[in-house]
């Protein structure tokens, strides 16, 4: 059921993607900052930009995962009620 929910939520993920990221380049930059150590970003003068991009990507992943878990719990309760 979780795999089905993952696929059914693709339009929701696309909407959230546009809320969190301006375009694919912005998303790519967030991924780059996520995997760049903070000390390197500090020396490049991009420390706070790194922190914000990392937080945006983490929140995006957390919300997408949370939606699936919440839907699963609701469907599980509904199925239990009708048993």
UniProtKB/TrEMBL annotation:
Annotated keywords: Membrane, Transmembrane, Transmembrane helix
Residues that span the membrane, as ranges: 57-75
Name of the protein in question: Uncharacterized protein
């Amino acid at each position: 059921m979780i795999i089905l929910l993952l696929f059914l939520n693709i339009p929701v993920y696309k909407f959230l993607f546009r809320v969190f990221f301006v375009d694919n380049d912005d998303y790519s930059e967030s991924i780059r900052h996520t995997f760049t150590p903070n000390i390197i970003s500090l020396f490049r003068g991009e420390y706070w930009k790194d922190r914000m991009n990392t937080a945006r990507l983490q929140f995006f992943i957390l919300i997408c995962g949370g939606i699936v878990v919440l839907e699963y719990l609701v469907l599980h309760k509904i199925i239990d009620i009708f048993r």
